[in-house]
Sequence to fold (500 residues):
Amino acid sequence: MSKLFNELMPYLEKSMAIDTALTLLSWDTETLAPQDAADYTAKVVGLLSGESFSSIVNDDVKKLLKELEKEKAQKELSENEKAIVRNLIRKMQQMEAIPKEDYQAYSEFAAKAQGIWARAKRADRYEDFAPVLEKMLDYQKKFAACRAKKGEDLYNLLLNDYEEGFTKKELDIFFSKIKESIIPLVKQVAAKSNAIDRSFLYGHYDIEKQKEFCRYIAGYVGFDFNRGVIAESEHPFTTNLHNHDVRITNHFHEDNLDSAIFSVIHESGHAIYEMGVSDELTQTPACNISMGMHESQSRFFENIIGRNHAFWEPIYKKLVSYFPEQLSDISLETFVHAINKAEPSLIRTESDELTYSLHILIRYEIECALFSGKATVKDLPELWKQKYKEYLGVTPKNDTEGVLQDVHWAMGSFGYFPSYAIGSAIAAQLYYYMKEHMPFEDYLKEGNLTVIRDFLRDHIHKYGSAKPTMELLKATTGEEFNAEYYIRYLTEKYTKLYDL
Ligand code: ZN
Fold:
Protein backbone atom coordinates (compact mmCIF):
# COMPACT_ATOMS: atom_id res chain seq x y z
CA MET A 1 0.00 0.00 0.00
CA SER A 2 1.40 3.42 -0.91
CA LYS A 3 2.17 5.88 1.89
CA LEU A 4 -0.39 8.36 0.59
CA PHE A 5 -3.15 5.76 0.40
CA ASN A 6 -2.25 4.65 3.90
CA GLU A 7 -2.81 8.20 5.11
CA LEU A 8 -6.27 8.17 3.55
CA MET A 9 -7.28 4.98 5.35
CA PRO A 10 -8.34 6.41 8.75
CA TYR A 11 -10.73 8.83 6.99
CA LEU A 12 -12.20 6.02 4.91
CA GLU A 13 -12.65 3.85 7.99
CA LYS A 14 -14.37 6.58 9.97
CA SER A 15 -16.73 7.43 7.14
CA MET A 16 -17.51 3.73 6.64
CA ALA A 17 -18.27 3.27 10.34
CA ILE A 18 -20.70 6.21 10.45
CA ASP A 19 -22.40 5.12 7.23
CA THR A 20 -22.78 1.60 8.59
CA ALA A 21 -24.48 2.98 11.70
CA LEU A 22 -26.82 5.03 9.49
CA THR A 23 -27.67 1.97 7.42
CA LEU A 24 -28.49 0.03 10.56
CA LEU A 25 -30.75 2.85 11.80
CA SER A 26 -32.56 2.97 8.51
CA TRP A 27 -33.01 -0.82 8.54
CA ASP A 28 -34.40 -0.60 12.05
CA THR A 29 -36.81 2.20 11.08
CA GLU A 30 -38.18 0.07 8.24
CA THR A 31 -38.51 -3.16 10.20
CA LEU A 32 -38.78 -2.98 13.99
CA ALA A 33 -38.90 0.60 15.23
CA PRO A 34 -42.23 1.81 16.64
CA GLN A 35 -44.24 4.23 14.51
CA ASP A 36 -43.80 7.21 16.85
CA ALA A 37 -40.01 6.91 16.89
CA ALA A 38 -39.56 8.71 13.57
CA ASP A 39 -39.25 12.37 14.65
CA TYR A 40 -36.80 11.60 17.44
CA THR A 41 -34.71 9.16 15.46
CA ALA A 42 -34.62 11.69 12.59
CA LYS A 43 -32.56 13.95 14.87
CA VAL A 44 -29.98 11.20 15.34
CA VAL A 45 -29.94 10.56 11.60
CA GLY A 46 -29.45 14.28 10.91
CA LEU A 47 -26.50 14.53 13.30
CA LEU A 48 -24.83 11.35 12.11
CA SER A 49 -25.31 12.43 8.49
CA GLY A 50 -23.51 15.67 9.34
CA GLU A 51 -20.65 13.62 10.81
CA SER A 52 -20.58 11.39 7.74
CA PHE A 53 -20.37 14.50 5.59
CA SER A 54 -17.40 15.99 7.46
CA SER A 55 -15.59 12.68 7.60
CA ILE A 56 -15.18 12.93 3.81
CA VAL A 57 -15.57 16.58 2.95
CA ASN A 58 -12.63 18.17 4.75
CA ASP A 59 -9.34 19.80 3.78
CA ASP A 60 -7.18 16.81 4.74
CA VAL A 61 -9.07 14.39 2.52
CA LYS A 62 -9.22 16.92 -0.31
CA LYS A 63 -5.47 17.41 -0.13
CA LEU A 64 -4.80 13.67 -0.11
CA LEU A 65 -7.13 13.06 -3.06
CA LYS A 66 -5.44 15.80 -5.05
CA GLU A 67 -2.11 14.08 -4.52
CA LEU A 68 -3.51 10.63 -5.20
CA GLU A 69 -4.96 11.76 -8.52
CA LYS A 70 -1.50 12.57 -9.87
CA GLU A 71 0.03 10.18 -12.34
CA LYS A 72 3.01 9.35 -10.15
CA ALA A 73 0.85 8.47 -7.16
CA GLN A 74 -1.55 6.46 -9.34
CA LYS A 75 1.35 4.25 -10.47
CA GLU A 76 1.87 3.10 -6.90
CA LEU A 77 -1.76 2.07 -6.41
CA SER A 78 -3.29 -1.36 -6.98
CA GLU A 79 -6.34 -1.61 -9.27
CA ASN A 80 -8.65 -1.77 -6.25
CA GLU A 81 -7.03 1.25 -4.62
CA LYS A 82 -7.39 3.21 -7.83
CA ALA A 83 -11.07 2.30 -7.90
CA ILE A 84 -11.49 3.38 -4.28
CA VAL A 85 -9.86 6.74 -5.03
CA ARG A 86 -11.98 7.21 -8.17
CA ASN A 87 -15.22 6.44 -6.31
CA LEU A 88 -14.24 8.65 -3.40
CA ILE A 89 -13.51 11.57 -5.72
CA ARG A 90 -16.95 11.12 -7.28
CA LYS A 91 -18.59 11.04 -3.84
CA MET A 92 -16.59 14.07 -2.71
CA GLN A 93 -17.63 16.03 -5.80
CA GLN A 94 -21.26 15.15 -5.14
CA MET A 95 -21.07 16.22 -1.52
CA GLU A 96 -18.70 19.16 -1.34
CA ALA A 97 -20.85 21.40 -3.50
CA ILE A 98 -23.57 21.22 -0.85
CA PRO A 99 -23.25 23.23 2.38
CA LYS A 100 -22.98 20.92 5.40
CA GLU A 101 -25.84 22.63 7.29
CA ASP A 102 -28.15 22.12 4.32
CA TYR A 103 -27.12 18.49 4.03
CA GLN A 104 -27.75 17.88 7.72
CA ALA A 105 -31.14 19.66 7.66
CA TYR A 106 -32.06 17.72 4.53
CA SER A 107 -31.12 14.37 6.10
CA GLU A 108 -33.28 15.12 9.13
CA PHE A 109 -36.19 16.15 6.90
CA ALA A 110 -35.74 13.09 4.67
CA ALA A 111 -35.84 10.75 7.66
CA LYS A 112 -39.33 12.08 8.50
CA ALA A 113 -40.63 12.32 4.94
CA GLN A 114 -41.06 8.58 4.50
CA GLY A 115 -43.34 8.33 7.52
CA ILE A 116 -45.51 11.17 6.23
CA TRP A 117 -45.71 9.49 2.84
CA ALA A 118 -46.65 6.13 4.42
CA ARG A 119 -49.49 7.74 6.42
CA ALA A 120 -50.73 9.73 3.42
CA LYS A 121 -50.71 6.56 1.33
CA ARG A 122 -52.68 4.59 3.94
CA ALA A 123 -55.24 7.38 4.25
CA ASP A 124 -55.35 8.15 0.50
CA ARG A 125 -54.55 11.78 1.21
CA TYR A 126 -52.22 13.14 -1.48
CA GLU A 127 -52.78 16.63 -0.07
CA ASP A 128 -50.89 15.60 3.10
CA PHE A 129 -47.90 14.41 1.12
CA ALA A 130 -47.83 17.16 -1.53
CA PRO A 131 -46.04 19.80 0.63
CA VAL A 132 -43.38 17.24 1.60
CA LEU A 133 -42.91 16.28 -2.03
CA GLU A 134 -42.66 19.94 -2.97
CA LYS A 135 -39.94 20.50 -0.37
CA MET A 136 -38.14 17.32 -1.37
CA LEU A 137 -38.14 18.38 -5.00
CA ASP A 138 -36.83 21.83 -4.06
CA TYR A 139 -34.00 20.27 -2.07
CA GLN A 140 -33.07 17.95 -4.91
CA LYS A 141 -33.16 20.75 -7.47
CA LYS A 142 -31.14 23.01 -5.21
CA PHE A 143 -28.49 20.35 -4.52
CA ALA A 144 -28.30 19.42 -8.19
CA ALA A 145 -27.90 23.10 -9.10
CA CYS A 146 -25.00 23.37 -6.62
CA ARG A 147 -23.26 20.54 -8.44
CA ALA A 148 -24.20 21.25 -12.03
CA LYS A 149 -21.75 22.63 -14.52
CA LYS A 150 -22.84 25.71 -16.40
CA GLY A 151 -25.82 24.89 -18.60
CA GLU A 152 -26.04 21.29 -17.39
CA ASP A 153 -29.53 19.85 -17.15
CA LEU A 154 -30.43 19.08 -13.52
CA TYR A 155 -32.41 15.94 -14.22
CA ASN A 156 -29.58 14.59 -16.39
CA LEU A 157 -27.24 15.11 -13.48
CA LEU A 158 -29.47 13.03 -11.19
CA LEU A 159 -29.96 10.31 -13.79
CA ASN A 160 -26.22 10.06 -14.14
CA ASP A 161 -25.86 9.60 -10.36
CA TYR A 162 -27.88 6.39 -10.49
CA GLU A 163 -26.56 5.09 -13.79
CA GLU A 164 -23.43 6.62 -15.27
CA GLY A 165 -23.76 7.28 -18.97
CA PHE A 166 -27.57 7.38 -19.03
CA THR A 167 -29.06 10.80 -19.59
CA LYS A 168 -32.35 11.87 -21.16
CA LYS A 169 -30.78 11.42 -24.60
CA GLU A 170 -30.05 7.70 -24.08
CA LEU A 171 -33.25 7.09 -22.13
CA ASP A 172 -35.48 8.75 -24.70
CA ILE A 173 -34.10 6.36 -27.31
CA PHE A 174 -34.46 3.40 -24.94
CA PHE A 175 -38.04 4.18 -23.96
CA SER A 176 -39.12 4.97 -27.50
CA LYS A 177 -38.01 1.44 -28.46
CA ILE A 178 -40.04 0.08 -25.54
CA LYS A 179 -43.09 2.07 -26.63
CA GLU A 180 -42.77 0.92 -30.19
CA SER A 181 -42.41 -2.79 -29.46
CA ILE A 182 -43.90 -3.47 -26.05
CA ILE A 183 -47.16 -1.51 -26.16
CA PRO A 184 -48.47 -3.48 -29.19
CA LEU A 185 -47.37 -6.72 -27.52
CA VAL A 186 -49.20 -5.79 -24.30
CA LYS A 187 -52.34 -5.11 -26.33
CA GLN A 188 -52.13 -8.50 -28.07
CA VAL A 189 -51.64 -10.26 -24.75
CA ALA A 190 -54.45 -8.31 -23.08
CA ALA A 191 -56.80 -9.42 -25.84
CA LYS A 192 -56.13 -13.02 -24.80
CA SER A 193 -56.40 -12.46 -21.07
CA ASN A 194 -58.63 -15.52 -20.65
CA ALA A 195 -55.92 -17.80 -22.02
CA ILE A 196 -54.20 -18.06 -18.65
CA ASP A 197 -55.87 -18.66 -15.30
CA ARG A 198 -54.24 -17.30 -12.16
CA SER A 199 -57.19 -17.67 -9.82
CA PHE A 200 -55.73 -20.60 -7.86
CA LEU A 201 -52.83 -18.38 -6.75
CA TYR A 202 -55.35 -16.24 -4.85
CA GLY A 203 -56.71 -19.01 -2.62
CA HIS A 204 -55.96 -19.21 1.09
CA TYR A 205 -52.26 -19.73 1.75
CA ASP A 206 -51.11 -20.05 5.35
CA ILE A 207 -48.53 -17.33 6.06
CA GLU A 208 -46.31 -19.49 8.30
CA LYS A 209 -46.03 -22.06 5.53
CA GLN A 210 -45.31 -19.33 2.97
CA LYS A 211 -42.50 -18.09 5.22
CA GLU A 212 -40.99 -21.56 5.44
CA PHE A 213 -41.14 -22.06 1.69
CA CYS A 214 -39.66 -18.63 1.04
CA ARG A 215 -36.72 -19.42 3.31
CA TYR A 216 -36.24 -22.64 1.42
CA ILE A 217 -36.30 -21.02 -1.98
CA ALA A 218 -34.00 -18.16 -0.90
CA GLY A 219 -31.44 -20.77 0.14
CA TYR A 220 -32.09 -22.72 -3.07
CA VAL A 221 -31.16 -19.77 -5.29
CA GLY A 222 -28.07 -19.05 -3.19
CA PHE A 223 -28.92 -16.73 -0.29
CA ASP A 224 -26.32 -17.49 2.41
CA PHE A 225 -28.00 -17.51 5.82
CA ASN A 226 -24.64 -17.26 7.57
CA ARG A 227 -24.16 -13.85 5.98
CA GLY A 228 -27.75 -12.71 5.75
CA VAL A 229 -31.11 -12.43 7.47
CA ILE A 230 -34.71 -12.10 6.27
CA ALA A 231 -37.18 -9.83 8.08
CA GLU A 232 -40.57 -8.37 7.19
CA SER A 233 -41.55 -4.90 6.05
CA GLU A 234 -44.35 -3.17 4.17
CA HIS A 235 -42.35 -3.29 0.92
CA PRO A 236 -39.58 -5.83 0.38
CA PHE A 237 -36.09 -4.38 0.11
CA THR A 238 -32.40 -5.23 0.54
CA THR A 239 -29.78 -3.43 2.54
CA ASN A 240 -26.29 -4.35 3.64
CA LEU A 241 -23.69 -3.38 6.17
CA HIS A 242 -20.96 -5.23 4.26
CA ASN A 243 -20.58 -8.48 2.32
CA HIS A 244 -20.96 -10.55 5.50
CA ASP A 245 -24.16 -8.86 6.68
CA VAL A 246 -26.78 -8.54 3.99
CA ARG A 247 -30.41 -8.08 4.99
CA ILE A 248 -33.55 -8.57 2.99
CA THR A 249 -37.23 -8.23 3.83
CA ASN A 250 -40.36 -9.81 2.52
CA HIS A 251 -44.09 -9.15 2.76
CA PHE A 252 -46.76 -11.86 2.97
CA HIS A 253 -50.37 -11.93 1.80
CA GLU A 254 -52.67 -14.69 3.00
CA ASP A 255 -54.63 -14.56 -0.25
CA ASN A 256 -51.72 -14.53 -2.68
CA LEU A 257 -49.10 -17.22 -3.12
CA ASP A 258 -46.65 -15.88 -5.65
CA SER A 259 -46.13 -12.31 -4.44
CA ALA A 260 -43.89 -13.34 -1.53
CA ILE A 261 -42.13 -16.07 -3.51
CA PHE A 262 -41.03 -13.70 -6.27
CA SER A 263 -40.22 -10.92 -3.84
CA VAL A 264 -37.86 -13.19 -1.93
CA ILE A 265 -36.20 -14.41 -5.14
CA HIS A 266 -35.84 -10.78 -6.30
CA GLU A 267 -34.32 -9.60 -3.02
CA SER A 268 -32.11 -12.71 -2.88
CA GLY A 269 -30.75 -11.62 -6.26
CA HIS A 270 -29.77 -8.27 -4.75
CA ALA A 271 -28.35 -10.02 -1.70
CA ILE A 272 -26.30 -12.54 -3.69
CA TYR A 273 -24.75 -9.57 -5.49
CA GLU A 274 -23.77 -7.87 -2.22
CA MET A 275 -22.49 -11.13 -0.73
CA GLY A 276 -20.34 -11.64 -3.83
CA VAL A 277 -18.48 -8.31 -3.61
CA SER A 278 -14.84 -9.12 -2.88
CA ASP A 279 -13.48 -8.72 0.65
CA GLU A 280 -10.97 -6.14 -0.59
CA LEU A 281 -13.76 -3.84 -1.79
CA THR A 282 -16.51 -4.29 0.76
CA GLN A 283 -16.61 -1.48 3.35
CA THR A 284 -14.89 0.87 0.89
CA PRO A 285 -16.29 3.56 -1.44
CA ALA A 286 -15.83 1.06 -4.31
CA CYS A 287 -18.68 -1.17 -3.18
CA ASN A 288 -21.56 1.17 -4.02
CA ILE A 289 -22.92 -0.66 -7.03
CA SER A 290 -24.92 1.24 -9.64
CA MET A 291 -28.69 0.85 -9.38
CA GLY A 292 -29.08 -0.44 -12.95
CA MET A 293 -26.57 -3.23 -12.43
CA HIS A 294 -28.08 -4.07 -9.05
CA GLU A 295 -31.54 -4.31 -10.50
CA SER A 296 -30.22 -6.40 -13.39
CA GLN A 297 -29.21 -9.08 -10.89
CA SER A 298 -32.41 -9.06 -8.84
CA ARG A 299 -34.51 -9.24 -11.98
CA PHE A 300 -32.24 -11.89 -13.45
CA PHE A 301 -32.97 -14.10 -10.45
CA GLU A 302 -36.64 -13.18 -10.21
CA ASN A 303 -37.62 -13.41 -13.87
CA ILE A 304 -35.03 -15.10 -16.02
CA ILE A 305 -34.34 -17.81 -13.46
CA GLY A 306 -37.42 -17.74 -11.20
CA ARG A 307 -40.16 -17.65 -13.83
CA ASN A 308 -38.44 -20.20 -16.04
CA HIS A 309 -40.19 -23.53 -16.58
CA ALA A 310 -36.87 -25.34 -16.14
CA PHE A 311 -36.33 -23.74 -12.73
CA TRP A 312 -39.57 -25.18 -11.35
CA GLU A 313 -39.14 -28.68 -12.76
CA PRO A 314 -37.09 -30.03 -9.83
CA ILE A 315 -38.86 -28.05 -7.08
CA TYR A 316 -42.54 -27.70 -7.96
CA LYS A 317 -43.31 -30.93 -6.06
CA LYS A 318 -41.81 -29.35 -2.99
CA LEU A 319 -44.14 -26.34 -3.28
CA VAL A 320 -47.12 -28.67 -3.70
CA SER A 321 -46.06 -30.52 -0.53
CA TYR A 322 -46.44 -27.25 1.41
CA PHE A 323 -49.91 -26.58 -0.02
CA PRO A 324 -51.38 -29.93 -1.09
CA GLU A 325 -54.98 -28.82 -0.71
CA GLN A 326 -54.56 -25.89 -3.07
CA LEU A 327 -52.03 -27.26 -5.57
CA SER A 328 -52.35 -31.08 -5.91
CA ASP A 329 -54.61 -30.69 -8.93
CA ILE A 330 -52.52 -27.96 -10.52
CA SER A 331 -49.94 -29.20 -13.00
CA LEU A 332 -46.47 -27.76 -13.33
CA GLU A 333 -47.50 -26.46 -16.73
CA THR A 334 -50.52 -24.60 -15.35
CA PHE A 335 -48.47 -23.19 -12.49
CA VAL A 336 -45.69 -21.88 -14.76
CA HIS A 337 -48.25 -20.28 -17.07
CA ALA A 338 -49.96 -18.62 -14.12
CA ILE A 339 -46.79 -17.09 -12.69
CA ASN A 340 -46.03 -15.62 -16.10
CA LYS A 341 -49.45 -14.21 -16.88
CA ALA A 342 -49.25 -10.63 -18.11
CA GLU A 343 -51.96 -8.03 -17.89
CA PRO A 344 -52.12 -4.26 -17.56
CA SER A 345 -52.38 -3.34 -13.88
CA LEU A 346 -52.05 -0.39 -11.52
CA ILE A 347 -49.30 -1.37 -9.07
CA ARG A 348 -45.71 -1.43 -10.29
CA THR A 349 -44.34 -3.78 -7.63
CA GLU A 350 -47.04 -6.35 -8.34
CA SER A 351 -46.82 -6.02 -12.11
CA ASP A 352 -45.64 -8.71 -14.48
CA GLU A 353 -42.48 -8.84 -16.52
CA LEU A 354 -44.09 -7.63 -19.74
CA THR A 355 -45.88 -4.53 -18.50
CA TYR A 356 -43.23 -3.59 -15.93
CA SER A 357 -41.24 -1.27 -18.16
CA LEU A 358 -44.38 0.71 -19.00
CA HIS A 359 -44.79 1.54 -15.30
CA ILE A 360 -41.23 2.85 -15.39
CA LEU A 361 -41.81 4.77 -18.61
CA ILE A 362 -44.69 6.61 -16.91
CA ARG A 363 -42.56 7.61 -13.92
CA TYR A 364 -39.73 8.70 -16.21
CA GLU A 365 -42.02 10.96 -18.24
CA ILE A 366 -43.50 12.45 -15.06
CA GLU A 367 -40.04 13.18 -13.64
CA CYS A 368 -38.98 14.79 -16.91
CA ALA A 369 -42.09 16.99 -16.74
CA LEU A 370 -41.41 17.91 -13.09
CA PHE A 371 -37.85 18.96 -13.80
CA SER A 372 -38.59 20.81 -17.01
CA GLY A 373 -41.40 22.73 -15.33
CA LYS A 374 -44.08 21.24 -17.59
CA ALA A 375 -45.80 19.82 -14.52
CA THR A 376 -46.03 20.80 -10.85
CA VAL A 377 -46.51 18.68 -7.73
CA LYS A 378 -50.17 19.67 -7.77
CA ASP A 379 -50.66 18.21 -11.26
CA LEU A 380 -49.31 14.77 -10.46
CA PRO A 381 -52.43 12.79 -9.46
CA GLU A 382 -54.18 13.77 -12.70
CA LEU A 383 -51.10 13.32 -14.85
CA TRP A 384 -50.57 9.90 -13.31
CA LYS A 385 -54.11 8.82 -14.20
CA GLN A 386 -53.81 10.15 -17.75
CA LYS A 387 -50.59 8.27 -18.41
CA TYR A 388 -51.87 4.99 -16.96
CA LYS A 389 -54.88 5.29 -19.20
CA GLU A 390 -52.75 6.11 -22.21
CA TYR A 391 -50.07 3.42 -21.87
CA LEU A 392 -51.75 0.65 -19.90
CA GLY A 393 -55.43 1.28 -20.46
CA VAL A 394 -56.21 1.28 -16.75
CA THR A 395 -57.14 4.12 -14.38
CA PRO A 396 -56.50 4.17 -10.63
CA LYS A 397 -59.58 4.75 -8.48
CA ASN A 398 -57.60 6.70 -5.91
CA ASP A 399 -54.12 8.06 -5.19
CA THR A 400 -53.14 5.15 -2.94
CA GLU A 401 -53.09 2.92 -5.99
CA GLY A 402 -51.94 5.83 -8.13
CA VAL A 403 -49.36 8.51 -7.51
CA LEU A 404 -48.83 7.58 -3.83
CA GLN A 405 -47.83 3.98 -4.45
CA ASP A 406 -44.02 4.29 -4.52
CA VAL A 407 -41.72 5.43 -1.72
CA HIS A 408 -38.97 6.74 -4.06
CA TRP A 409 -40.00 10.38 -4.28
CA ALA A 410 -40.45 10.53 -0.50
CA MET A 411 -36.82 9.42 -0.30
CA GLY A 412 -35.71 12.12 -2.71
CA SER A 413 -34.78 9.49 -5.29
CA PHE A 414 -35.58 11.37 -8.50
CA GLY A 415 -33.86 9.77 -11.47
CA TYR A 416 -33.86 6.36 -9.82
CA PHE A 417 -36.80 4.70 -11.63
CA PRO A 418 -35.18 4.37 -15.08
CA SER A 419 -32.51 2.12 -13.57
CA TYR A 420 -35.20 -0.56 -13.03
CA ALA A 421 -35.85 -0.71 -16.77
CA ILE A 422 -32.14 -0.50 -17.61
CA GLY A 423 -31.61 -3.38 -15.16
CA SER A 424 -34.23 -5.53 -16.88
CA ALA A 425 -32.56 -4.87 -20.22
CA ILE A 426 -29.10 -5.75 -18.86
CA ALA A 427 -30.53 -8.97 -17.41
CA ALA A 428 -31.84 -10.00 -20.84
CA GLN A 429 -28.52 -9.18 -22.48
CA LEU A 430 -26.67 -11.34 -19.94
CA TYR A 431 -29.18 -14.15 -20.43
CA TYR A 432 -28.64 -14.40 -24.19
CA TYR A 433 -24.90 -14.39 -23.70
CA MET A 434 -25.04 -17.10 -21.03
CA LYS A 435 -27.44 -19.26 -23.05
CA GLU A 436 -24.96 -19.26 -25.86
CA HIS A 437 -22.06 -20.23 -23.65
CA MET A 438 -23.54 -22.72 -21.20
CA PRO A 439 -26.46 -25.17 -21.07
CA PHE A 440 -28.43 -22.64 -19.01
CA GLU A 441 -31.81 -24.40 -18.94
CA ASP A 442 -30.18 -27.79 -18.29
CA TYR A 443 -28.52 -26.40 -15.19
CA LEU A 444 -31.89 -25.15 -13.96
CA LYS A 445 -33.49 -28.54 -14.63
CA GLU A 446 -30.74 -30.22 -12.61
CA GLY A 447 -31.24 -27.74 -9.77
CA ASN A 448 -27.65 -26.70 -10.29
CA LEU A 449 -27.55 -22.94 -9.89
CA THR A 450 -23.95 -22.89 -8.76
CA VAL A 451 -22.44 -22.52 -12.23
CA ILE A 452 -24.79 -19.65 -13.08
CA ARG A 453 -24.14 -17.92 -9.77
CA ASP A 454 -20.37 -18.38 -10.05
CA PHE A 455 -20.44 -16.90 -13.54
CA LEU A 456 -22.24 -13.80 -12.28
CA ARG A 457 -19.98 -13.51 -9.25
CA ASP A 458 -16.76 -13.84 -11.25
CA HIS A 459 -17.82 -11.46 -14.04
CA ILE A 460 -19.87 -8.93 -12.13
CA HIS A 461 -20.49 -9.25 -8.39
CA LYS A 462 -16.93 -9.38 -7.12
CA TYR A 463 -16.06 -6.04 -8.73
CA GLY A 464 -18.51 -4.00 -6.64
CA SER A 465 -18.36 -0.56 -8.22
CA ALA A 466 -14.65 -0.85 -9.02
CA LYS A 467 -15.61 -0.90 -12.70
CA PRO A 468 -18.41 1.14 -14.26
CA THR A 469 -21.55 -0.82 -15.18
CA MET A 470 -21.22 -0.40 -18.92
CA GLU A 471 -17.59 -1.49 -18.83
CA LEU A 472 -18.50 -4.62 -16.86
CA LEU A 473 -21.32 -5.43 -19.25
CA LYS A 474 -19.04 -5.10 -22.24
CA ALA A 475 -16.29 -7.14 -20.60
CA THR A 476 -18.83 -9.88 -19.78
CA THR A 477 -20.83 -10.07 -23.01
CA GLY A 478 -18.37 -8.54 -25.49
CA GLU A 479 -21.00 -5.98 -26.42
CA GLU A 480 -22.15 -2.50 -25.46
CA PHE A 481 -25.53 -2.07 -23.76
CA ASN A 482 -28.11 -3.24 -26.28
CA ALA A 483 -31.84 -2.90 -25.57
CA GLU A 484 -32.72 -5.20 -28.47
CA TYR A 485 -32.07 -8.25 -26.29
CA TYR A 486 -34.72 -7.14 -23.84
CA ILE A 487 -37.27 -6.59 -26.58
CA ARG A 488 -36.36 -9.93 -28.17
CA TYR A 489 -36.64 -11.69 -24.81
CA LEU A 490 -40.12 -10.33 -24.07
CA THR A 491 -41.33 -10.86 -27.64
CA GLU A 492 -40.13 -14.47 -27.83
CA LYS A 493 -41.38 -15.32 -24.36
CA TYR A 494 -44.88 -13.87 -24.68
CA THR A 495 -45.40 -14.94 -28.28
CA LYS A 496 -44.80 -18.52 -27.17
CA LEU A 497 -46.71 -18.27 -23.90
CA TYR A 498 -49.82 -16.77 -25.50
CA ASP A 499 -49.49 -18.50 -28.83
CA LEU A 500 -49.63 -15.17 -30.66
ZN1 ZN B 1 -34.92 -4.48 -6.70
